[in-house]
Amino acid sequence: MIRDKLTSRNLFIRILWLSLIFLITFFGVTVLSYYILPEGLLKSANTSRDFTISSDIRLAGIQIFLFNMMSVAVIAISSLFARKNGESKAYLSIGYSCFLVLVLINAVTLGTWSFITDVPSVGLVERITSMFRITEHAGLTEMFGQLLITCALADKHIFMIYKKQTIKRRIKDVPWKKEEIFCILLGFALMFIGAWVESRALINIG
């Protein structure tokens, strides 16, 4: 059932169902990692620990936005591939798996408080509720931006894998709708807004 929703031709249905999966996964894993994993678990593995940002909020925002584009690039590249099993009629974009891996990493980072900044640790409730203060925390804004881009690219695969076969289609045969292009642009806009919020927060902490 879920697979059918994620492979729907209706963009709104794809967004709705991936949003539900995202929210359940993100906050569920955050709670679990808070209770069962050691605090600071991913701090040494955080790829942005050596990332130095400008003291100018505009330049810092651009730096963070460009840094976050690496995750979008990974989603876009993985969205070129899709696969199906014997029971499925439609191919499921591998971009979904890539997006959910990023969500899991972010959830464990929040649950174990593995941020690179030296901000005092807070309780579980505060960790969760603070995510909804979108003018102070960029996490949800940026992840929803990634989500929109993932959903818009969900049927843009070039390489379709079925069992041991790989079928390739021509780029000109890939369908595009106006709402999908708008969705991608909105996703980039949300990520840019998130980068600006994050830059302001980091500069204020510094």
Topology order in helix (H) and strand (E) letters:
HHHEEHHHEEH
Q: What structural class should be given to the helix and strand makeup? A: alpha+beta
Strand numbers in spatial order across the main sheet = 2-1-3-4
Largest sheet: 4 strands, mixed
Measure the end-to-end span. 47 Å
The total domain count is 1
Q: What is the 3D shape?
A: globular
Indicate the proportion of strand residues. 5-15%
- Mean pLDDT equals 91
Work out the number of β strands.
4
Number of helices: 7
pLDDT < 50 stretches: none
* Integer-rounded radius of gyration: 18 Å
Helix content: 55-70%
What's the topology here?
Elements: H1 2-6, H2 11-36, H3 57-78, E1 81-84, E2 92-93, H4 94-111, H5 124-130, H6 139-152, E3 159-162, E4 165-168, H7 178-205
Parallel strand pairs: 1-3
Antiparallel strand pairs: 1-2, 3-4
Helix pairs in contact: 2-4, 2-6, 3-4, 3-7, 4-6, 6-7
Supply the key terms:
206 residues, 4-stranded mixed sheet, 4 strands, globular
Q: Would you write up a description of this structure?
A:
- By secondary structure, the protein is of the alpha+beta class.
- It has one domain.
- The protein is 58% helix and 7% strand.
- It is built from 7 helices and 4 strands, in the order H-H-H-E-E-H-H-H-E-E-H.
- The protein has helices at 2-6, 11-36, 57-78, 94-111, 124-130, 139-152, 178-205, and strands at 81-84, 92-93, 159-162, 165-168.
- Strands 2-1-3-4 form a 4-stranded mixed β-sheet.
- A hairpin with a 7-residue loop joins strand 1 (81-84) and strand 2.
- The model has no long low-confidence stretch (mean pLDDT 91).
